[in-house]
Structures are given as structure tokens and as C-alpha cells.
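Entry 14. Structure prediction run on the chain below.
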Amino acid sequence: MGPVLRPIFAIHFLSWPMRITRALSKSSCQLDATGMSVRLPGASKPATAMAALSLPPLPLRAPPAAAPAISPPHSASTSLKRLCKEGDLRQALHQLTARAPPPREHYGWVLDLIAARRAAAEGRQVHAHALATGCLDEEDDGFLATKLVFMYGRCGRVDDARRLFDGMPARTVFSWNALVGSYLSSGSAGEAVRVYRAMRASAAPGSAPDGCTLASVLKACGVEGDGRCGHEVHGLAVKSGLDKNTLVANALIGMYAKCGMLDSALRVFEWLQEGRDVASWNSVITGCVQNGRTLEALELFRGMQSSGFGMNSYTAVGVLQVCAELALLNLGRELHAALLKCSSEFNIQFNALLVMYARCGRVDSALRVFHQIDEKDYISWNSMLSCYIQNGLYAEAIEFFGEMLQHGCQPDHACVVSLSSALGHLGWLNNGREVHAYAIKQRLHTDLQVGNTLMDMYIKCDSIECSAKVFQSMSIRDHISWTTILASFVQSSRHFEALEMFREVQKLGIKVDSMMIGSILETCNGLKSLSLLKQVHSYAIRNGVLDLILKNRLIDMYGDCRKVHHSLSIFQTVEKKDIVTWTSMINCCANNGLLNEAVSLFAEMQKANIEPDSVALVSILVAIAGLSSLTKGKQVHGFIIRRNFPMEGPVVSSLVDMYSGCGSMNYATRVFSGAKCKDVVLWTTMINATGMHGHGKQAIDLFERMIQTGLTPDHVCFLALLHACSHSRLVDEGKHYLDVMMSKYGLKPWQEHYACGVDILGRSGQTEEAYRFIESMPMEPKSVVWCALLGACRVHKNHDLAVVAANKLLELEPDNPGNYILVSNVFAEMGKWNSVKEIRIRMAERGLRKDPACSWIEIGNNVHTFTARDHSHRDSEAIHLKLAEITGKLSKEGYTEDTRFVLHDVSEEEKIDMLHKHSERLAIAFGLISTRPGTPLRIAKNLRVCGDCHEFTKLVSKMFEREIVVRDANRFHHFSGGSCSCGDFW
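Output returned:
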């Protein structure tokens, strides 16, 4: 049975005075001559009536022994019945004891009232009075004893009910029902089932289970979650024909629903058909809500209405839960209106309405409902407090808490949970400690939910130590406790402690769920440990907790470890890929240089009818920018416009970055200018794009315009500005803004900012000053700083300082192949071929490989990639013929190869041949034969353009009257009319 049913025993006992005759079996208890002692079966001597039930003696007067039992006049019965009906317990007790002995049905009326009031003390008095007056003598038919069992059970005195029941010589089905109900109402559902089994085993006449018995036992099975026992009871109901009883059928529905067997509950409901009542509909609707099948609950509610059943308050509560779960505000409002119209018929469920409005985000409506509650209970106050917190109104929640205190509402554990949550989101640590102290004072801190929330509050307030202390003080911990403490250690980068905690979880045999694995995966990421990542991955597979969220995270993490094949293997095992799965795999490919694969994945995602979101669009725009595919970039831009994505935030910043990365500053500027809301990220992106294209003065102008708008630059913004100064030889400006960053904005420079400072000085030829700048750094310089100095020394031939920088670089990053190549090139320019050979050997010993130089060009909708001396292209013969033709024409115009840029110990002829076959030259030749005259060529290269290819491209742009945009590893070069935008400074 659910809350929708009346107490089943009241149905029997309220009608007993009319149904039960006085001619049932006699009691085996005998009173002595005084009427104050009772002889129990098997007792050697009489005991007082008070001692028999362990009751304290009461000053009740016994009637004269010789006085006959005279029934009071009819008016007295009517008066007592009226008093019980009106709930006047005091007067009813007075009238019951005024005459001796009263009829037993009078006791029944008073005991029913006592049970309803749960007035145990008064019930004990009536029990003693019945013993004293002889109403529980051997002539009692079990009626009064059963009434007393029922009363004790309702008053929570189940032990007294059991003792009284055990002393009954003859037990009827009503007696058994009373005891079953006693255990059930006291929360001992398991004991109620055991009493039922004893009832079945007794097989006494008149004690066969009836509909009320089965309904009670089914409710107990539901509480225990014992579907097997419930199924047995269902079988007995079918065998005895009681399954057609609406009371039993409703109990069956409730039992199956609580045991998670909703399909069985629905079958019982369908079978019931004509026997359904409002309680039947309420039971099945509530069952659907309890099992998370809210849509079916909604359909059943519609069916209930169409069947002509009017809803009651319990129906409203169930459907309001559905409205809250599905955020069905309009339906919730309809129910609210219906409740208001029917307010005279049943109690309006204000608290359920309040929760519904809170879950639908209508705080104003929830507050109006709250103010309409005349008698606010703890649920009302806590629901309104939770409403503020659910909707992110944390400050308002604190203010409302003050109002609670003013109205004398003492905070309970639910209030402490809500308040701690609000303070955690606000980051108010001191107030959080006050709440913690209050919880300890009121002994609320032992509550599991309170402890978990306090832990979370301290984590949000960046007080990990306090969170750990709360965890250590908790006597009972659940999954949330362990998951919370694991997450706190991970967030604070205490990865080894997190691992120890996870080992403790395994030792204690606590079931590990996906959230715990997620935290440990973050630890793997923090420790950069591929082997640990593989172990955790295997553990998740073995324990069956590898859900979609974890698979998506693993794709990301293997991608971060440059293990794309592992990410791809996981990606292929996901049957129902969501947008996160696709985005993770696209990011994995893009971040590992597999740009074409990333673009192909995006196309496959659209074919799979997965609609890209803003995160996926940002990811693909990053890949397209790396690929320099202007055509594909325009296609994605068009998609964004057609789908009405807001041109703001990361999307618009990624568009600007994509267009600038594809060499089209015109489009980048148009997107930037069209953005209505420009944040620091968008300004920074535009400053960086302008600087990368060699427009340092424009980058500074953009920075100053941003300052005028009232925005405050951050570290990244200054980094972009300093890069722009470096690429445009703006030495004084670079020094100025590095100083402004520290003095005016109080930003402590990163290693990258110092590297920019070194680059600014070194590019301008001031390598010695750059070295002194490094020595003046307030922190130990890292590899990025020494790399900037080494690059400058190589360009400006400061070989002595280059050796110093090279040694530092290899010392700091011995496993970075790029550093070895840079150092090798420096030694090659110095002619130290033995040192070059030594560097190459060291690379081989460490298993390091150089990334081959490659260039790519977009023709139509395809990207064509070339490496040095490449013959793999389908048009390879035509390309090499065109390149030979170009070289011949340029030679006639005075072009001479500069073999200083060939860093190999080979003959001059071989060096010239190597220069002729550089990848960017092959891309240029292919572009010339594949496009119409006058069409701009856009080429990208993964390494720095060498000086000879730079000169070659200038001459080609003039001879063939083509604009050629080349993006190398450092910056953009716009070649036109025989000159370059970099001014030969890169």
C-alpha cells in the first residue's frame, strides 16, 4: 500500500462493534475476587493486572464485586460515541471510567481514538481499567484484546502489542492483522513478514489470511524490497481469489513498483480493469515516478482523466513530481489551478507545488506558493531554501535563511545541507565554518549527507585540509564520501594521495563506480603517466564500469599522450557515439597533427546525423586553421550562419583564428568587426593574428583600442602583443609593454613572456643583451627561453653564445627531438660536422626522430601535401617539369642558389639539387599548374622557411604576377611583386 490508502486496520476495527457477536471463544485469563489480579494460563499463582503487562499501578477504582454489569442507557452510548468522533479524548476517558463496567464496544471507540492520537499513556490507562473491571476476563471474545494490540502498534509500543498478542488463547484473523500492522507501522517490515508466515503456519480456525492481511504483507515486502516474497503472496491471492480485491491489487502494484518490477506492476494494473479506483491509479502513477519512467506516469495520468476518475491530493503529488522531473511548467500550472478549484474537497499540496516551481526555474511562483502556506513546516522552509540554491541564487538563499531564524525555525540536517551548499558556491569559508560548528553542536555532523556536503563546501572554498578532516571524522562513509575526497585530492594536484585513497577503497571492498574512475583518470593525466593510464583503463574494463563518459575521457587522455591509435580503438568500440565522442576524437587528431583526419571525422559526424555544437565547431575550426584550408573554413562558417549560432565567445574567436591561419586577414577582420560583444579572448586572437602576419603597429593599435573599451589585458593578451613586437622588430615597444605588464597591471611574467623579451632583443641582433636579460630573470630560465636565444644566435652568427644556449637546451629537455635538430643546425652552420654527427647519434640512442619537412596547398576542396624530393603525387612528373622551368627562368634573371642554407656535409651540386626539391617549391609549382593566372596561392609549411626558398618565392611572385601567402612555423609571409611583408625579417 502507498500513502494513497487509508490505514487498513481502521476499516475493520471501526465496524467491529456492529459485526462481532459476543459468542466467540472465552479468554483463558481469570481475575481474582478483587478484580485486580489475573491468572494467566500455566501460571502457578495470580499476578496483578499491572504486573502482567509491566504497567505502573494507576489510581483506578474497581467496582463492587457484587454489583451487576448494567449497561448504560442509550443516551450515554450516544454521548461517548459523539465525544470520540469529535476527538475529545479527555472527556471520552472520563465518561468511559464513570460507569463500571462499560460495554466492550465503548472501549473500542476510545481505543480507536487513542490509536489515532497515538496517545500511548492514555492507552495504558484504558488497558489497566479493562483488566480491573473484568472486561478482559475469560468471557472476552478477543475483540478488546485485538483492539489493544492495534492501539499499542499504532502508538509505537510494538513490544507491548506482541506480549498481549502472545497471551491471547484464541487468535482470529483480526488479531493477526493487528500484530502485522503493529510491526509494519513501527518500521519493522521484516518482522511483519515473519508474523505473516507464522500465521500461515498456525492453520488455526478463523485465522486464514484475508485481503487486509495480504495488503499489509505486500506493503512490508515493498518496504523490504523482497520481490520474491511478494510474488509468493501474489500467488496466494490468486489461489484464494483475493487478487480481484481492489485493496490487494493496489498493494500488489505498490509492492512490484517498490521492488523495481514495474512491468509486473503495470500487468496487475492492466488486469484490474473494472476494479480500479483512484488509489489504483495513484499507485501505478507513483510507481512509474519511483522507477524513473516519468513519461509513462504522464500518460497514465491522462488515461486516468479520460476514464472519468477525478484526481485527489495524492494524484496531484505524483503528477507534480513528473512535472518537476520533466520541467513541465504548463502542466504544473494546470494542476495548480485545479487544486485551487478543488481546495474545499481536499488538502492542497503546497510543498509539492513549491518543489515543482523550483525545478522549473520559477522562483517567483515558488515564493508565492510559499507565502500562501498558513502553517509552514520544516519541509516548506527547506524546500524554499533549496529552491534558491537550485536556481543559483546563493546570496538570496543566505538572506532567506536569516528569515527562517527570525521565525523561530531551528535548522535541521536538511537546512544545514542546503546552507553548506550555498556557502560553498559563494566561497564564504568563515561562514561555512560557522555552519560546521553549529552542526557539531547540534550533533548533526554525524549525518552522512551533512558530512558529504560539508566536504564539498570546503573543497569549493579551496580548503582541502578541512575537507579531509571532515572525511576522517565521519564514522559512516558512502560512495559520495569517497568520490568527493578523491576529487578534492585530484583538484588540488595531490595525485599520490589520491592514488593511496583509491587503494584504500579497493582494500575495503567498496564498489568502485565510474565517477571514482574518472577522478583517478585525472590523476593519470596530472602525473603524465601512460602506464598508470593503461592500468586504470584495464581496471575499468574488468569491473564493468567503462561507460560512455569514461570512454570519451579516455579518448582525450590517450590523445594527450600522443597515442592516437589507442584513442581510435576506443572510438571504434563506442556503439552510440554522442557529440562528445566525436568532438574528443576530432580534438585527438587535430592536436596530434592529423588535420586531414580531423576534417574527415567532422564530415562523418554530420553523415551520422550528429548536430555539431559550439565545442565541436571550435575543435574543427582549430583543425582547419592548422590545415590552412580556406575553402573548408568558409564551409564551416556558412554552417554556423545557417544554424544561427551566436557569433560570440569561443566560436567567433575560433573563426578569426581560422581565417588568419588560412592567410586571409580580410575575412578575419570582417568577422572581428562584426562581433557585437568583444571580450578579452577575441581581442587577443585579433592581436595575435595581426602580429603573426607582420603588422606589429596594427597589433599595438588594437591593444590600445581594447584598453579604451575598459577591458583589462591578461597574461595571454600581453603574450600575443609581445610576439607581434618581436615579428615586427619593435624593440622599444616590446620593452615598454613588458614593463607595463608588470608595473601597471601587476602581472607576473611567465617563462613565455621572458622568451618573447629574449626574442625581441635577439632578432634585432642584440644577442649579448638578450643573454644578460636571461641572467637578470627572477626565476630559473626554462627551455623556451634558451630556445629563443639559440635561434637568434644562429641567425646572427653568435656561435660562442649559441653553444652555451645549446648545452642548456639539451640539459633541460633531453627528450625533445626539435631541440636536437636546432642544435645540430647551429653546429652545421659553424662547420662542426663531428658535433653534428654526435648530436644525431644521441638522437638515435634515445629513439628520437626528426619530423620531416612538409608543405601543403589547397586546390579546390582538396589539400595536397608534399615533402622534400617528393615523387608520390599523381602529377609528380608535371610538377617537377614545372619546377625545372621556373628555376631555369629565374636563373636567366640572375637568381643564384644560396647553398649556406643546406645544412648537410655534401658537395655543392648536391646542395643545389636539395634546394631545388624543397617541399614549398613543389607546392608552388603544383599551384601554378593547377590554378588560373592571377589566383593567389596559399601554402603552409611545418618548419621555418629557409633563406633561399624565401628569395625564390619573392622572384616567383614577381615573374608570374601571383600573390603567394606562405605560413611557416614562425609567422606568415605575404609575397607580392618581388617583395615579402616580413621585410626579410623572420
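The radius of gyration is 43 Å.
Filed with the rest of this week's runs.
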